[in-house]
Write a structure and sequence with these properties.
This protein is mainly alpha-helical. The protein contains six helices and no strands. The radius of gyration is 24 Å and the shape is flat. It starts with 16 loop residues before the first helix and ends with a helix.
Length: 152
């Protein structure tokens, strides 16, 4: 199936066939892509085989923990440095890994995939309301920064 490029009357940051799928301009292809992603998620996430649990004996685990104590202390010192905001790149990497601890990569990928299929079309439909709300939020944030700066 071939997707044709057509001129857009609406100004948009997206001008590609890729955008047509995420903005639901071709509903059959968009639904097909979203459906296939959902089926893939169901197959890989919900229908996984039962894997027997493995148990570690206590003694080797305690030996490993004793050997890693120094490295853990170094990591904690590094985290303190990151949390203080001195290294932005490390800070962002830690944030991404922290979100990854809540859900596995496949689920996170599917959430992002569904958001990419819904947010652009919703923004295009309600662009004026979203922009007005964003301006109000930015104005309120600037007022709060002034209050914060006065206190500090």
């Amino acid at each position: 199936m071939e997707i044709s490029l057509k001129p857009y009357s609406h100004k948009s940051p997206f001008h590609s066939e890729f955008a047509d799928v995420f903005l639901w301009r071709n509903k059959k292809i968009s639904a097909s892509v979203l459906g296939r992603a959902t089926v893939a998620w169901v197959l890989f996430e919900l229908s996984r085989p039962k894997i027997p649990e493995a148990h570690l004996p206590e003694e080797p685990f305690l030996q490993i923990a004793a050997g890693l104590r120094i490295e853990i202390n170094r990591a904690l010192a590094c985290l303190c440095e990151i949390a203080s905001g001195h290294d932005l790149k490390k800070f962002l990497v830690v944030r991404i890994k922290f979100v990854g601890a809540w859900c596995n990569f496949l689920t996170l990928f599917c959430i992002v995939f569904v958001l990419l299929h819904t947010v652009p079309v919703l923004y295009e439909k309600y662009e004026d309301q979203v922009d007005n709300f964003g301006e109000k939020v930015m104005h309120e944030m600037k007022k709060q920064y002034v209050v914060f700066d006065a206190k500090v």
